[in-house]
Design a protein that fits this description.
The chain is α/β, with parallel strands linked by helices and 300 residues long. The chain has helices spanning 3-11, 27-34, 105-108, 124-133, 150-162, 178-182, 187-203, 225-240, 252-255, 263-269, 279-296; strands at residues 73-76, 97-103, 110-112, 118-120, 138-144, 171-175, 207-211, 247-250. The longest helix has 18 residues, at 279-296. InterPro entries: Ester_Hydrolysis_Enzymes, SGNH_hydro, SGNH_hydro_sf.
């Protein structure tokens, strides 16, 4: 069985576990059992068209990833449907559904390549592919700004996304806060900023999948990790006090860990910079988030 297919069978068969905060499963050992097979067979997937958003730099050190810049990685990933498009299910949905994946570099899918420059492999690629495999007419839009902070500009940018003429979103997945922690913003300010994003989505009639801030391991900012954990604790409290059909929280920090992995597991799923996933890591994120969306949403 291909490598990521084995991961899918372990992580993505029961989405209930992704939203339970009292489950003490050893996720690292699950990853270890799943990663003992040979290299994954190459998977063909259409990359989003990012050329108009690319920004080149003279040196990989001229712009650290955590500094805000004007590169906006935005792409609609849905392919045009035609009679030749295969699916695993025969039923046809009554209408198209729209999902917005909104956030920073982790939504943009930033991956450092061998020459030190960034390329993009959004987890949305996997989300879009999985919906197509289900035979569902779902359009996934990725909108990520590498280096962006929740407390600086996300609110205005999200408002602009939600108010596009003739556009609506059934779901908005919000992943942000890593850059805020790294840049020294307080946990309360980050949490307050995230709540404003959730309120905007609710105002526009979209259901929200909030995502906790994942772990990082970077010597310069490891002393700030407590702020990350406080934000996630606040998000858990918010989730428990919010109607399930309006807001769902995905515990990314728990089900896609970094610190508890073995050296080999970490090499597969996380970049050596201690912040960004690898392409395999983004694909795993996409599988997990897809499973939650499929279970929590209504896709008639």
């Amino acid at each position: 069985m291909p490598f990521l297919s084995k991961l899918k069978s372990v992580f993505c068969c029961n989405s209930n576990k992704y939203i339970l905060d009292d489950d003490d499963d050893d996720v690292a050992s699950i990853i270890e059992r799943s990663s003992e097979s040979q290299q994954e067979e190459e998977e063909v997937s259409e990359k989003p068209l990012l050329s108009e958003f690319e920004s080149k730099f003279d040196s990989p050190t001229t712009r650290p990833f955590y500094q805000t810049n004007q590169v906006i990685v935005k792409s609609v990933l849905r392919k045009k449907r035609n009679a030749s498009v295969s699916s695993t299910k025969s039923y046809s949905p009554r209408r198209r559904y729209n999902i917005l994946l909104f956030g920073d570099n982790l939504t943009a899918g930033w991956v450092k390549n061998e020459d030190g420059y960034g390329t993009y492999h959004p987890y949305g690629l996997r989300v879009q592919k999985r919906f197509e495999e289900e035979g569902l007419d779902v359009e996934v839009t990725v909108s990520g700004v590498p280096g962006e902070c929740v407390v600086q500009s996300m609110e205005e940018r999200l408002k602009h996304e939600l108010e596009q003429p003739g556009k609506w979103y059934d779901w908005v997945v919000i992943l942000g806060g890593t850059n805020d922690v790294i840049n020294g913003y307080s946990a309360w300010d980050i949490y307050d900023g995230l709540k404003k994003l959730y309120a905007l989505c609710s105002k526009h009639g979209a259901r929200i999948l909030g995502v906790t801030i994942p772990e990082f391991d970077w010597d310069l900012v490891n002393h700030l990790d407590y702020q990350r954990r406080i934000v996630n604790e606040h998000l858990n409290v918010y989730n428990n006090s919010t109607t399930r059909n309006a807001f769902t929280l995905f515990l990314l920090d728990k089900f896609f860990p970094m610190q508890s992995l073995t050296t080999e597991q970490r090499r597969i799923f996380w970049d050596y910079d201690g912040v960004h996933p690898t392409e395999d890591g983004y694909d795993l994120m996409g599988d997990m988030i897809f499973d939650l969306l499929l279970k929590e949403g209504s896709w008639d």
